[in-house]
Write a structure and sequence with these properties.
269 residues, alpha+beta, Nucleotidyltransferase, domain 5, 2 domains, seven-stranded mixed sheet, five-stranded antiparallel sheet, 7 helices
Length: 269
């Protein structure tokens, strides 16, 4: 196994009591359990060091605290349960390093995510972008397919969605739909929301039957499930590029998206 690939355990947390604003939380994994204490308003996390599970939690304290910090205070209550993962090799700096690509490898029934140094290797590429023009109340998305030749295949459509981030997700979905037979590919997008959603958040949502850490149903669940279906048995790389930075294919995607939104082009392909 590549040393940068993810290794993770699945944990279950259950809030069992509250005292003076701090919550006592039971953590279970690999037939072991421990108790931790977390104070939402102070964002204070207290851990013990009594067994192997405690050692694991202390080693990945930053990840655990991030999960708890991101929960709204009103979503803490006794009886709340949440499944989550902590990755041994999940180096936050690497995953947030914009010079690297994020790999999602679901081949052979697996599910691995890891950061990797960007390279110009030969690989099937999908460039995506989307836009919403508030003044016109029109949205559109584009997927430009670049196989192993310099030929570009352009696919685009209008949408009634009004969230720019969601429209960016639709662009990726369209690119995968028209490339469904391709098992190894790279998606190039200027949306960090899309990359994080598709390589980090979605796994935890699935563990919790498509509920978030807030205990709420995932919004736009049909789109996320569609991506999940399309990504099965694939090796996918996600590369972030800065929007409006004169990146040739990203600039072309942006141009087509705006033209489709204002109906200057035949708006469906």
């Amino acid at each position: 196994m590549n040393e940068t690939q993810d290794k993770y355990d699945i944990f279950l947390m259950e809030i069992i009591a509250v005292q003076d604003g701090a919550y006592l939380i039971k953590i279970i994994a690999n037939k072991q359990f421990t108790l931790i204490k977390y104070h939402p308003s102070k964002k204070e996390l207290s851990l013990t060091d009594d067994n192997k599970l405690d050692t694991k939690l202390n080693k990945n304290k930053y990840q655990l605290k991030k999960i708890l910090n991101n929960k709204r205070p009103d979503t803490f209550f006794p009886g709340f349960k949440l499944k989550f993962i902590l990755r041994d090799n999940h180096k936050t700096i690497e995953f947030n390093d914009l010079s690297k690509i994020i790999v999602l490898d679901r081949r052979n029934g697996g599910y691995k995510t890891y950061a990797e140094v960007k390279s110009d290797k030969e690989i099937y590429r999908i460039y995506t972008d989307g836009c919403y023009l508030h003044k016109l109340k029109k949205g559109a998305f584009v997927a430009i397919i670049k196989p192993f030749t310099n030929k570009l295949n352009i696919h685009y459509d209008q949408t009634d969605e009004t969230s720019s981030s969601l429209i960016e997700l639709l662009a990726v979905i369209r690119g995968l739909e028209v490339s469904n037979q391709i098992r190894k590919l790279r998606v190039i997008t200027d949306s960090r929301y899309v990359i994080k959603g598709l390589t980090e958040w979605i796994f935890n949502w699935k563990l919790n039957d498509w509920y978030t850490a807030q205990g709420e149903k995932v919004k736009n669940i049909n789109y996320w499930k569609r991506f999940d279906e399309l990504s099965k048995d694939k090796y996918m790389e996600f590369e972030w590029v800065k929007g409006h930075s004169e990146h040739p294919e990203n600039t072309l995607c942006d141009f087509y998206a705006k033209q489709v939104a204002i109906r200057e082009l035949n708006y469906k392909t």
